[in-house]
Write a structure and sequence with these properties.
mainly alpha; 0% strand; homotrimer
């Protein structure tokens, strides 16, 4: 049961990631192909990076090329309905938070299934959840937002930490997954609502 | 026969990609080592990315380290003859178009030989043809040209689509390859000549 | 014996790379999580890139997740002692040079153990030594320093070339390793001291 829900949430998540990436592309006046490429890299880049680093082949979109289609349709739909997207701002911030948490748990699951250590599983979850956005920001020629603002990576670490710890303790899968999902999602939404930030490290001298 | 022609065109293509990358390096005043590195990443980065994503090891330059030498010699030659390169501008735009098409077909061939789905083969062709230039632009700290201008990725998709479809229909290899090559090349050259562009997606509101 | 020394130097090197990356993060006002992520990518990114390109799995930090801890502790320590770091400027430039040479030799060793050609082993050493800093600069949205300044990649090529050649000639491992290390280190320190530079390639015309 929970596998089906996770799969549906995964499809929702890649769609939401693709659509927010398409808007980022639009703010840089990319052409339609650029919009689709940026959407694909953002939505599927985190999982692909995880699989490449863990040597976990074949990649998701190689086995399921229909996900590429989902991403491209999401990107083109965004171009069509862009003028109304502003009204859906809150919905997309919510779906982006769902995506972060779902991607994280999927990444942890794959690493645990490969028999990898606990710390590596948490890192695999964080890579799955966060790297897509980092690639998007690099391709848009910006310092990744992840490194500068909001409890984004931290939410991923907490979600993954709860899930992996629960699994290691031999607790039943579904309650652990739902608990990690809900706590991670709540943490992310509260961070957005109250503008929670990590402390910043400000250093002004040059070493070189 | 056609394999030999494809191989010769591949060598021409990595040489041309290395030389245009060397000029991009020169416009940013990189040192000689930087010029060679940028040339190598641009010429061999597309194929390497494809092989890493598909889990297709060993990589081309690991089996044929002489290609690294080709790229370095091309880069150093560019430094030597840079003052004359401007007169060869049209030639290099033509060779760059040849490279795009040849890289695409090689990428499709490798994916089809691995028994991967049609859509993945077309994506593998596009990655082979386009990612080198994307890496070059990222390392030069620019938004990749691919995302913003010209029918570059589109030419790759059309070329790969024709080639992969022809192979799937069981048509003889060589005519399919030549047809895809000529149509892709013509499309790219016409796009350059008449400044064809994809429509751009312009979006000005911020989601965050 | 020499394996133990190399291992200790490796730990010193990833610590030093993590700390200098943390300072780079501080100059861009990244938050604490961003500091740790940039430190991890810089310290472990070169080896990870090498292993991904060579298909050499599992990666170092997957087998030894404690290295991730080393890097995070180094990054947080840097935040704590940042105000004193300026006085340690020379020490860190020295440790960075040690890291470059040690990473290079480790990269060459792994490629030679895989039975790869001499040129590929030297490239593997250069990737191990240099790519971490390139990833750091890309994530900080700068043209990689490697491409623009100082004998950094060149030191890696000379160190790797000496080591690989010595191994190919059947010379005993330890003297070859120490000789390559000392010559590489001396070359890097002299380059820093006397501001040695590679000639730059300056090109002002646009091809497109």
């Amino acid at each position: 049961m929970s596998v089906l829900i996770l799969h549906i949430l995964y499809l929702v998540a890649i769609t939401a990631e693709a659509m927010t990436a398409a808007l980022a592309a639009g703010r840089r006046n990319m052409d339609w192909v650029g919009v689709c490429l940026l959407a694909a890299v953002t939505a599927l880049g985190g999982g692909s990076t995880r699989d490449v680093l863990l040597g976990h082949h074949p990649l998701v979109w190689v086995v399921h090329p229909e996900y590429l289609l989902v991403v491209v349709v999401a990107a083109m739909t965004t171009i069509a309905i862009a003028r109304f997207m502003h009204h859906l701002r809150r919905l997309f911030l919510f779906l982006d938070a769902v995506g972060l948490v779902v991607f994280t748990i999927i990444g942890c699951t794959i690493a645990l299934d490969m028999g990898l250590p606990v710390v590596v599983a948490i890192v695999a979850g964080m890579i799955t959840g966060c790297v897509g956005g980092v690639l998007r920001d690099i391709l848009c020629n910006e310092i990744p937002l992840l490194f500068r603002a909001e409890l984004y990576a931290s939410v991923s670490i907490v979600t993954g930490g709860l899930y992996v710890t629960g699994m290691q303790l031999g607790l039943p899968h579904d309650p652990v997954m739902y608990t990690a999902t809900i706590i991670g999602l709540a943490m992310r939404l509260l961070a957005l609502r109250f503008n929670w930030q990590m402390p910043k490290f400000v250093y002004t001298l040059k070493l070189h």
